[in-house]
Fold this protein.
Amino acid sequence: MTRRLMFFTIGLFILTMGVALIIKSGLGASAWDALAVGESNMFGITVGTAVFINGIVLIGLNALIMKKKPDVLAAGSILVIGLLIDFWLLVVFNNYAPEMLMNQLFALASGILTMGLGIAIYLQAKFPASPMDTLMVAIHTRFGLNLRNSRIISEGFALSLAFLFKGDIGIGTIIVTLLLGFVVQYSFPIFEQLFERKSMGKAAVSAD
């Protein structure tokens, strides 16, 4: 349980840092976050609050896709994610606003990398995933698509909603939609092996 909690916590910290960096790049947020930024501007709420509300709605949608009861515990994950996003945006990166294109691209690239790695890390814990990532996994499981294509489909759905809510859409949004799935696709097996190796190591010590 300690190892799972460690992967979960570290993964969420890295994931939400990536979200904040992408938003702060000023080139356009990832699809789900572009939606949240649009809702934040439209309704006067924080981005983290918008993320939480969207997550609650997605819990119901994921239940329909998977033909299961709604995963109520997933609300806990999205609550933590929402709080951490606000922490990074309003505290750590509050005064960070890159203006030169090179700096904006660096923030965007760093955000894509850290967000993808964070997703791959925290999913290893097998705790309730965020509803946004559960949608990716639900599509992957239900329709037999790989994680990359499943991510592109879920991000495309969010992008459509972001347009409706006048979200933070830009060239960065398209780049994230196309590349984030690759980061998750290729980093997930690495952290899966690391997680299993630690599990086997702990089991061997217990046996001795």
Q: What stands out?
A: The chain has one domain: 2-203.
